[in-house]
Amino acid sequence: MSDLLAARSQMAMSLAFHIIFAMVGIGMPVLMVLAEWRYTRTGDPLLLDLAKRWAKGTAILFAVGAVSGTVLSFELGLLWPGFMHFAGAIIGMPFSLEGFAFFTEAIFLSIYLYGWERVSRRAHLVAGVLVAVSGALSGVFVVIANAWMNAPRGFRVVDGLPVDIDPIAAMLNPAFGPQALHMTLAAYAGTGFAVAGIHAWFVLKQPKNRFHRHALSLALRMAVPAALLQPLSGDISAKLVARTQPAKLAAMEGHFTTQSRAPLHIGGWPDEATRTTRFAISIPGGLSFLAFGDFDAEVQGLDRIPEEDWPPVAIVHVAFQVMVGLGVFLAAISLWAAWLRWRRADFVHHPWLLRALVAAIPAGFIATEAGWIVTEVGRQPWIIQGVLRTRDAVTPMPGLIVPFLFFTALYVFLGVMVLYLLMRQMRHAPKLTSPGSG
Q: Considering the domain boundaries, does residue 328 fall inside one?
């Protein structure tokens, strides 16, 4: 394994592990606040118990996310010294703000966990809201740094180094808004559907259990709006990619030939040898319309880009199709659930919806992993788009396969422990069957 491949593999594995905990760290505080807010409105002690259990789960996942996030911060310096030498002064501000948001979240999560009987109800609920807000901001600041790598701004390059650095302009790069919105919605949808699916499974087994019915209802209140807004957010992001990263868009769509009225490819496998996307369903003019709002617009293909600047087309295309397919799946379930709620139907009497929710447990996380593959692999061979190549940023240190195997084992161990602790929480859930529903 080459040094470059080993460094990229270790970073990819670390990011793939950490992103799950980052998503849950954004979504779970919203759920625990929703449960407590409903408790203050209804006085139902079951909702109080639910808020406390979700708070404990949030604390477990927050702790593991802190560990994996710390590992990532070290890996940036150890594996990518060329990147940090070039970009450290530019992306230092969003990373510093992320640290501030992280510590704010930790402080108010401590107040939330240990302040149930020590502060007023209103102060306790406010602490929970601040946990949710700081968790979301923590994710946004990290995404800002990544957005800058896709659309670098706020500096000039002189003799291979950045000068005239403007950190604010760098943070307010064109990709920051679309990426931050898309990732935040993904966190709410992915976490919400995972929690809803877990409780839907218990509702299928225990239809009269009010605890799981309450939990299912609250999880859907977060998941459904986020999943319905996500396609709109994705459209905004794709239009930005069309303007700023045409090679990434071409790889996403398996689009090899520059042309007007460019077709949209659904499915298929890009064949770089023949420069065609085989087995795809093609919609004439679909890509032109989605990228530029005009069925006759010209869309740049990979034929106008030197082959050494092509990203791995097949990987990016397949990952993009997985992300979009799962996003459509979650949006369809959301429409189904919203329609039933509008009719004031009880989900217990719709087992096929409950089964669909169970099937959707991993969907949001898989879609997010696929989306990050599109974002990061689609930018290759650049670590900073058009400015710094990945091969020029990697460490020259040999033997990276050893830390790769070590950290992989560490993440597997942490993942197993988290699953054990969360399943233990769920197994001891109350089994109340008094009248009423969630």
A: yes
Interior angle at CA 322, CA 247 and CA 379, nearest 5? 25
* Residue 351 forms part of a structural domain: yes
Taking all residues of the chain, what is their mean pLDDT, rounded to a whole number? Answer: 88
Q: In 3D, which of 137, 150, 142 has the Cα closest to residue 94?
A: 142
Residue 436 has pLDDT above 50, yes or no: no
Asked if 216 and 34 touch (Cβ cutoff 8 Å), the reply is no
Residue 87 lies in a domain: no
Q: CA 14, CA 20: separation in Å to the nearest integer?
A: 11
* 3-state secondary structure labels for all residues of 51-119: HHHHHHHHHHHHHHHHHHHHHHHHHHHHHCHHHHHHHHHHHHHHHHHHHHHHHHHHHHHHHHHHCCCCC
Per the omega criterion (within 30 degrees of 0), is the bond before 45 cis?
A: no
> What's this model's pTM, rounded to 2 decimal places?
0.91
Separation between Cα atoms, residue 263 and residue 283, nearest integer Å: 5
CA dihedral of 238, 242, 247, 249, whole degrees rounded to 10: 30
- Which runs of consecutive H residues, i.e. helices, occur in 245-348? 246-253, 286-292, 313-342
What is residue 438's predicted lDDT score, i.e. its pLDDT?
41
Q: What is the pLDDT of residue 400?
A: 64
Mean pLDDT of 100-119: 90
Instruction: Tell me how many domains the chain contains.
Output: 1
How many beta carbons lie within 10 A of that of residue 164, not counting itself?
Answer: 10
Distance CA(49)–CA(37), nearest Å, equals 12
Structural domain harbouring 266: 179-395
As a whole number of angstroms, the distance between CA 127 and CA 82 comes to 41
* Through-space distance between the first and last CA atoms of the chain, rounded to whole angstroms: 53
Q: Is residue 235 situated within a structural domain?
A: yes
Place of tokens 């800002």: 144
**Span 13-25, average pLDDT:** 87
d(CA 363, CA 325): 10
What's residue 344's pLDDT? 86
Residues sharing a CB contact under 8 Å with residue 320, sequence separation 6 or more, in sequence order: 252, 253, 370, 374
Residue from 225, 181, 192 nearest 331 by CA: 225
Q: Does the pLDDT value for residue 434 go beyond 60?
A: no
Query: What span, in angstroms and rounded, lies between the C-alpha atoms of 213 and 216?
Result: 5
Give ∠ CA 74-164-145 in degrees, rounded to 5: 35
